[in-house]
Amino acid sequence: MGSQMNPAAIRIVLVRPSHPGNIGAVARAMKNMGLTSLTLVAPKFFPHAEATARASGADDVLAAARVVGTLDQALEGCGFVAATTSRERDQYFRVLDVREAAARVLAEARTAPAAVLFGAERTGLTNEEIDASHALIRIPASREYASLNLAMAAQLVCYELFRAAGGDGSAVPPRPGAAALAGRADLERLYAHLAEVLEQIDFRDRTRSGTHLMSRIRRFLQRAELDVNEVNILRGILTSVQNRRRPAGSEPG
What residue segments make up the domains of the chain, in order of their start? Predict the structure, then answer.
């Protein structure tokens, strides 16, 4: 990888992988392309002999893999998060071609660790897991048979990251402003604060089901790619709204 690329700043995250061989194959793909940071969320079988066998020379990547119980733990400290998907488009998310996504992940990793999420082999990522991402990654494939297995998808993403880094990585410009994006914990606190204020001002979902308001809000704020200062500004506004609504003499909650 180029001199401006820090392989440890790009986190490959496998969410609930069920086949240990795929874990080993992903470790090998990462090693091939100079990546080192593998995180496993609630793997069904790990460590496992098949994972070691399929790693085939990437034992160091496998040995250093971090195993956590939740996606929140996997994304701790991360800024930009991209999730792989088979969807060609999504009205709620920015969908990036894999080559475009690789360049973006590489640029974001210069200011804070960036993560690429891969879902379970049979079910992929849940809607809640996808909600943690700023963008979706689409890997173009034949319409007749567009299904890629986990190891193949990871190999393609890792290759595009390696390719985007090219020589010294100068082809990938930093994001304008280059401020680190707000992490998952900061965003969750913002969403909880916003939900609290919406309840206090009696602003409710007027759709027929009445259950999608916060999901829609979360998704457009994820698309906005807020940095920490912007999150603090929004929370300051929310606090001001709350202070204005408190009866005289009452204490803040």
Answer: 7-165, 184-245
